Amino acid sequence: MVIIAIIIGCLVGILVGMNTPIIPYSMSGYLAISIIAALDSVFGGINSSIKGNFDLKIFVSGFFVNAILSILLTYLGERLNVDIYLAAIVVFVGRMFNNLGYIRRHYIEKWISRKNKEEKNTNEKGV
Amino acid sequence: MEKNNKIMAITIGIICFILVLTIFVQFKTVEETDISGIERMQETELKEALSQWKQKYEEANEKLEDTNEKIKEYSNQEQDKTKTSNLLQEELKNANMILGKTDVEGEGIEIIVSDGYKVEVNGNRAEQNVVAKDLVNLVNELKKAGAEAISINDQRVVNMTDIVDIGNNYILVNSQNVSNPYTIKAIGEKTYLQSALGIKNGYVDQMAASGKNVTVEAKRNIKILKYEAKTDKNKMQFKYIKEK
B24 is in which domain, residue-wise? Predict the structure, then answer.
């Protein structure tokens, strides 16, 4: 059910996104950083669901608050003439890689253990 | 549990929707924005570009001024050239007029000199032909009186003109035969020319005394043809004289 919701959401998002007007270029920097923040939240969510401690409230609040915070920080950085968005990107992308690493390890371990089981089974049958 | 699942699915779907939507909007924005456009440039880049353009503008301006100055110079030169060429043209015209290379007209007098006779003491008529000397004298008189152009039977008298006798009946002017009667045209102040010839014991009197016929007529407009060289000798091409 969740997977269907994800697929539907993505498809509708693509369709709507293709047909919306473009935003002013000066705003696109903020949008980009918020996208990075949101992606980080999504990977964090996937990671936590793998670990089994996924909480919808934390995920949703993290998704929106991170995005908004990153926008605000970027804006502040622009006012202060400091490229804060660089720091935000470093943090978010670093975390994304961490989460991706967890996810990858989890599925590889799962795959290996399943293979081992199958081998055991075939061995037993052969005997 | 079922309800929670539904809520979770819807929430995650909405979140996916928002995420993908923003991602695609961003894609489109990046794609459709001119990468090298001014909007994309940062402040420092803009400053640099602006200063570059300013410099270019100044250079172009300088060039423009230079070019304008050059154009001014050239046009000045051009004016000078036309001035000099006009001057040259004028001079050439003047020189041609002096040399008798152009047809001219103006007020002047027309003199007809013809052969006559003299009654001698014994009653015989003695033919008196006009000789070259008569014409030379006449030309000299006219020149002295300020004639600007002279011709004898339409032979223009110029500085190289020769007036010589050939036999008894012909006179050569400009190496061309001219014969009786002789029509001499002179352009100048007509009254002055006329009186110069007609004074007592002047040219007319002398000729009359020698029995030759002379008539002098003042005219408001006389046309004198240009000098035309008929032989090589008279073409005014100089072989021996050189400019010093």
Answer: 1-30
